[in-house]
Amino acid sequence: VLRENNNLNYIGSSSSVTQVNGLYIYNNPSLLNIDAFQSLTSIGGAVYIGGNNALQNLNGLSGLTNVGSLLYISDNQSITNLDSLVNMESVGGGLYITNNDLLEDIDGLSNLTNIGDGLFIAGNDLIENLNALSNLVNFEGSIHLDENLNLSNISGLANINHTSIYYIQIVDNPLLSICNLENFCNYFADFSNPRE
Length: 196
Hints:
With 196 residues, the protein is mainly β.
């Protein structure tokens, strides 16, 4: 756990540890990189990367293939892409990408095939599409797409089986004018399914 260290800008040298139970890097406003974690390939629990305003990339997670619980990337005001997560294949819990003001795309998630407890993409002003999630075939949970000002294409979610979706919320994405995904249409066609 690295939390609320106002003057921390560097985390020692690289470690040879490949697995940990969880990783929490939260509210370290001067932290420039997390490169010390580059040897990690698997995290058994949750990953929280949030409130690190000077952090420009996630290069320290470039070897990561699996997160056992949720992956939470939120309120990091300098991160522009998730390219370092290109090896990520599975998130056992929910995937939360929220309020990253300079995040231009999520293309680094193109190898992600499994999410175990929902997708939450909200408040990312620059993301235009979710194409990187087109390999996502093992999914369970809710889908929340809220307040993404430039999001205009969600066809990357087309391969999710509608029977594995618990709830869909699509709110305040002003450039999203068409939602004609067959799986979403099938979900909405069943009026017993919750929606907003």
